[in-house]
Amino acid sequence: MSAKVPRCLEVCSSGMADWASIQTDILGIIIKKLLIPDYIRFRAVCTSWNNVCKDVSYCPRVDPWLMLPPNQNPLGAQFFCIPERKNQSIRLPNTASLFESVWAPVGSSNGWLIYFSHTYGTMQLVNPVSGKHIQLPPIGRRTFSKAKLLEISERNFIVAVLYGDEKGYKITRKGSSNWSSVESKFILDDIIKHGGRLYTCDMYGTVEMWAEPPRAWPDEEVTHRWRFRCLIETPAGDLVRVKRLCQNKFAVWILDKASSSWVGTENIGDLALFVSHYNSFCFPASGQPNLKANCIYFIDIYNNLCAFNLEHGTKELVQTLTIGRGQGRNDYHRWPERDQVLWFIPSLK
Known about the structure:
Neuraminidase, five-stranded mixed sheet, KIB1-4_b-propeller, DUF295 domain-containing protein
């Protein structure tokens, strides 16, 4: 029996290969190896390839990105891909107007960015990959500390805003035409939705679960000089509390739901934490080039991307980034006054 001859690309009359006729399973293998920006270009090649991309079983690679400040002539959203150690650019015509100097990104979650216009006192939810955007109710021009996207789905979205000089938070959801105010005992540093309930961390490190009866976990040590605290949910559904002990050191606790207490740990397994003032999240490190497990990724005071190893308690330089003032960042509306960064995980939804 003669050996089967591998199927070759058909050649049209002009002598060019008929790329649209490539087998679907081969295209699927290619798609799974693509980064999001390459995937966007891939699906724009022809109708046939675009139809293959609509199959949910063929998904591109998803990596943690660091959103970079726009330059003098922004091409769109600029990102630094952590595993690939290189910049990525997403340029979408239907969202280009949102990346003008009047808009500043102030939050990110589930593949969506929160943009705030200090000029108009309004907010937008923007997915820079899909091009979708959602207008939020007017919130006013007053400067706030951070905005958090607590939940987003086809049925609902919930956004909360924290103020650095005011107790409590403001919240809005799909279908609402305004923002509701919720009081707290102290100024809040972070807020997260976990297990269907809201958790907050105040300026003294106390974590509180917003339920009846209220439950609170006070911090064992109050630190103000390097004050940074955040709450992160892991893929396994655990709630993690991160605290910055000093300039280059962090501590981590995991909520033990059985005993309703925080347990300190120096081992988060095959996970990496990405922390910043505006948003923080957890990401699996396995299978990701240049991404180390059991580490906390952050930006130091010298604008370096660094990794803090929880087990050894040491800081490692990952990449030097050019993101300081002096790159056309004198305009307040181009980027928030606070020199902080924004982590981002792209999503096709």
